[in-house]
Design a protein that fits this description.
Length: 230
């Protein structure tokens, strides 16, 4: 049986050792190298000749995106998986464009971890369940069209009420304050918040405000560019 040669790059020693131990127990996998950091990822790939690189999202002072781009440019056949806590949708978009075939959350269980590796090797595009749905389908459809991340976010359809809730969250309003302002029950507000989180493929309420501010800034820049080009 030909084994999957894996290069693991993770700066947390305990996590790295645990993942390495888990992979070594698999009959179809081989740890070609397990390292905390790399000075030059191309040198490491050339040296260890992996079929798959598992890369920490924040590895080398958050230069992992550049490492992904370099890896795919110089070794287009290589498969790449990024490990992280739940990433933002703009990050997902950028990594998919750069050539990443999958994400593994750092709290994934063993079965999820191994399934992702095997699926990616077989040519699959695997993301955690939290990132699938309307957002990722748009990312997949628009990746080849050079669509910017915030353009994708802007295209997600929100109801009028959901837009009102987003605006109030961006103004730091609590659920109770939103309920009072919109004359809704607090349970209805919580339902709207839940739906917004689902559509944006994020997990925390505070991220709604961040996305609202980013989108507003993006719209302002776009309008300014249109105005100055006239």
């Amino acid at each position: 049986m030909k084994k999957i040669r894996i290069l693991l790059i993770e700066d947390n020693r305990l996590l790295r050792n645990g993942i390495e131990s888990m992979i070594k127990r698999q009959p179809d996998m081989l740890v070609a190298a397990s390292i905390g950091k790399v000075e030059n990822i191309l040198v490491s790939i050339d040296k260890y000749k992996p079929g798959l690189v598992i890369l920490d999202f924040g590895e080398i002072s958050q230069h992992s995106l550049q490492n992904v781009k370099l890896s795919k440019k110089n070794f287009p056949q290589i498969k790449l998986i990024v490990m992280n806590i739940l990433p933002l949708q703009a990050d997902v978009f950028e990594y998919v464009r750069a050539g990443v075939s999958g994400f593994i959350l750092k709290d994934a269980n063993t079965a999820e971890f191994l399934k992702t590796i095997r699926s990616v090797i077989l040519g699959g595009m695997i993301l955690p369940e939290q990132l699938t749905g309307s957002l990722f389908s748009q990312i997949a459809e628009n990746t080849i069209n050079e669509v910017k991340p915030l353009e994708i976010v802007e295209s997600i359809i929100m109801t009028k009420r959901e837009k009102q809730v987003i605006d109030l969250i961006a103004d730091s309003a609590t659920n109770k304050e939103i309920a009072d302002k919109l004359n809704l029950s607090i349970y209805t507000v919580k339902s709207h918040v839940h739906n917004i989180l689902e559509k944006l493929a994020i997990s925390k309420r505070v991220q709604i405000a961040k996305h609202a501010h980013q989108l507003e800034s993006y719209k302002l820049k776009r309008e300014t560019a249109l105005f100055t080009s006239e």
